[in-house]
Amino acid sequence: MDCRPVSIGIRQNLPSKWYNMPLYRVILSVLFVLPVFADDKLTGKIEALPASGLIGNWTVAGRTVQVNAQTKIDTDEGRAIVGACVDVKGNTTGNALVARSIEVKEASKCAVRTTPSSSVEIEGVVEQLPAGGLIGDWKIGGVIVRVNAQTRIEQEGGPVSVGSCAEAEGTRNADGSLAASKIETKNGSGDCRGEGNAKPQIEFRGTVQTAPAQGSTIWTISGRRVNITQAANVTPRGRPLAVNMCVEIEGRLEDDGSVTGSRAQILGSGVCTNGLDRQEDISFRGVIASLPSGGLIGDWRVGALTVRVSAQTRIDDDDRAPAVGVCVEVKGDFTPTAVTASRIETKRASECSTTGAFRFDGVIQTLTTGVGTWQIGGRSVLVEAATAFDRSRGATVVGACVTVIGVLETNGAVRASRIEVLSASGACIISGGIVGTANYAGFGVSPAQIVSIFGRNIGPTVTKPLAVVDGRVSNNLANTRVLFDGTPASLVFASEGQINAIVPCNVIGKQTVRVQVESNGAWTNIVDLPVYASYPSLFTISNSGRGPAAALTFENGQYNTNPTPRGGTVLLFGTGEGQTNPPL
Q: Domain 280-349 has what CATH class?
């Protein structure tokens, strides 16, 4: 059985943008565990190609490059022809380079590499060192590396030793050895970052939550177990790690989800301020006290708060139209002076009399052992003896993601009636944070639907776009995955606060599905959602699910934005149609 969306609509961090691109059939493949050889890199001009097609032996900068059907060839910057400049990555077998990927580059990249002795780089485990010192023949990932007094050796990543990981740069000799101009150690562990390695290098920022127990070297940092031994580089030197510090960790991700740290940079005391402490995604209910003159765009007054409404704000008025005296629920981003509304929904009058109407998600920055004032998401939260706690998904510790429900005081503090832990790791999907990408609404998912997942620390700090690997849409971007009942979803893009994903077809026939995000070894809370056979919606220009559709006129095989004439063909973009009959 096969299901797939016809097109993708992508909303990046700017709410006014929408994108679309065709999505080809997603094919899952079986991954084989391969031995790790030296990761060989070559930049140079193509000097010869096979007589027919691209499969076969190429000559690049004097070296034989073997290209097979599995080699990924990227021609975005030009054609693969004799004289073109290319980057080649692969493994060395004998005197030939077996290419995993070839990327055509602009000619200037090869301007200084016109001779057969083009610079190459290899990365691998140090298997052999000269007796009595470092000058002489090394063996790195199966390649003989010749080191002399002029070779620059950098050991910031750890001391040189057999079993450590190193990157060597230099020129290739006729016998296949490498004359090294530079060698750089990557870490002292022997785990290299070559493609196909099951233990990738990661970098993340987090808050130290617990120190190691007696005789242990395992710290808890934003929910991750991090092994920091004496071999790790801790800076500033002489300043020890401690609970409640903000640190930046580099290391390798182990099979059990822990991290073996190679570097720990102390950034300061308290919860990290890398966006995780922003007060955002709040929701509250109140009565409209005033509206802008001449329409709904502008500043509203709801209860005691100013609510900023723009063309991108979704207004649901199924109960009644917005007017002074009407009860509404507001969702959006909170600043010290106003709420920037992403959605406003009118409610029955009785729903505004509910106590504890103010709700927000945030990260615990400071807390007390009993009654007192906590700092959560940059806001003072008054915890009383009557405050209820839900710790079923983790402990209330510094760095944990929580939902706070309570009453907004006149001084801006929140008197908490309930605090619910979403995730002790600091990575969490916010309440109501999984919605359809087309209209940013919905209470469930359908097969092959494109959904947006909002949260904190759920992905990389730098947005990673959709990646196609060997003709398949990747389900892993920057060590970030979205799992639906354990099945990874294809990812449209991933960022720290939002991920767009395609619901896998394993949900067909199910009543509910459990959704969880894993990012660099940290797991979010689990969100249970109902599954529908279909949950269709169309993309709109405003990205709100309302207003003019994101549509194109199709004429003579071309797309344009002109009005569609009577009898013409209009192209609409949607998602959530579920399995088609017959299947696509």
A: mainly beta
